[in-house]
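Give me the 3D structure for Sulfate transporter.
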Amino acid sequence: MLKVARVSETPNMQRPAGLPSSPWQSLSKDLPAGLVVFLVALPLCLGISLASGAPLLAGVIAGIVGGVVVSWLSGSQLSASGPAAGLTSIILASLSTLGSFEAVLAAVVIAGIIQVILGVLKAGIIGLYFPTSVIRGMLAAIGLTLILKQIPHLIGADADYFEDMNFLQFDGQNTFSAIEKAMQGIGAGSTLVGLVSLSVLLFWEERVVKRVKSLRLIPGALIVVLLAIGLNNLLDVAAPVLRIRPQHLVNLPDITSWRDFTAAFSKPDWSALKHPGFVMVAFTIAVVASLESLLSVKAVDKLDPHKRVTPTNRELMAQGAGNIISGLLGGLPITAVIVRSSANINAGGQTRMASFFHGLLLLVSLLFLESILNQVPYSALAAVLLVVGYKLTKPALYVTQWRLGWQQFLPFIVTILAILFTDLLKGVTVGLAIGIFYILKANYESAYFLSKPASQQAGPVHLKLSEQVSFLNKASIVKVLDELPNDTNVLIDGSDSSFIDYDVLEAIENFRLSAPERGIQLELRAIPQVQVLGH
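Predicted structure for Sulfate transporter (535 residues):
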């Protein structure tokens, strides 16, 4: 047995340098970061609603719940939750199956209950088995996808929704054909605003800006948004021909009264529980939302400058509680979302206060800021996401993975390509398959140590088993036993093994029974005998 010494924390133990002891101590960084996340999240919430075939405010409601509620229930300090692009096709299929959005809301509530149960049952341990190479590949792929997907928005030539992260888009285009089509309809005003925004963001990353303390407190994205609104209004007056078209501006619904606000909320239709496909819809939403959340928080932990670790079981329960509330209020399903979380980290967020603040801003914007926010060009927000995307897929990351060898680089690059040409979950599944292959290969090669006597020297062939021998090691052990020459002395030694799987013991027992026929003198040391079927 492996014994782990527990070290109790004492008052004299110091926290890692720069790590805030409470959310309130880092407000100067969290509030600007929350503002950036809000600016990125708002069009995403609206776009995902549009792509899901749901009421426009359903995505905003989900974003509010993700920020205001899930941020405090989750153990992640930097993850931002809300509606996710990966669930759009599932919501569309669920609408077709159940017949109404209200029925889907009931499924979202039940899915949340399933997630809470999964967290209680400690199913979050699955998140600990995602290889680092696959997580890094996922981050790099999301960065590349962000760059490719935002190019049409940057040049004002894409009416597709803002966070269509899949290769095959809901408008019939794919990632590359959308760029080709966009090049044929470039909007001069959007391009001008987009390029100016991108230039400002890049300048904001320069050392000359970071040396000025007062400027460090202002997020570059805020400067970009204010500048973009000003430029857009200036073009309206000075050069109407360059005016940015309405479909390339943020489009918040017009809520002018309390009645408009309350009318935006839909209620679950509980009669849908009787529908034969209801359970499958709820279970599908729960599983996909859970996997996306676990993948996202693992990726966020990799990006966290303080290297904090998110408790995965608590994350499942937090996301489940969020889905219960979102479904009851008329919102889309919620997951932890890597795009918003990356924007949070990139903007300097330190604690959960940044995500909470972004949720509050979503609520305030819905009630009071509609007229201002509807002047924000998508091209300015695209510039923000282009910078986020580049930081996720820097060339140095590829160099690092290459230097680690093929067993790290191949799952990394395969994950990237698979996500680029499919979607997040399918791509990660392909990457995991490659990663598992290398795990199996490593197990195959590390199950034992084989030593043979030198020529013309007496002594047995010594097969010494490793400390942990699982069923994954069976193939390599059977192979080496089959290849042993006849008429030899063999010692199979398990004295250093703390665990030997039954499948391996059965294979050794089969070898023991067949050894006399091959003239092999066999000695077993610390190898338990098992009953083999037929003997």
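The first strand starts at residue 80 and ends at 82. Let me know if you want a second pass.
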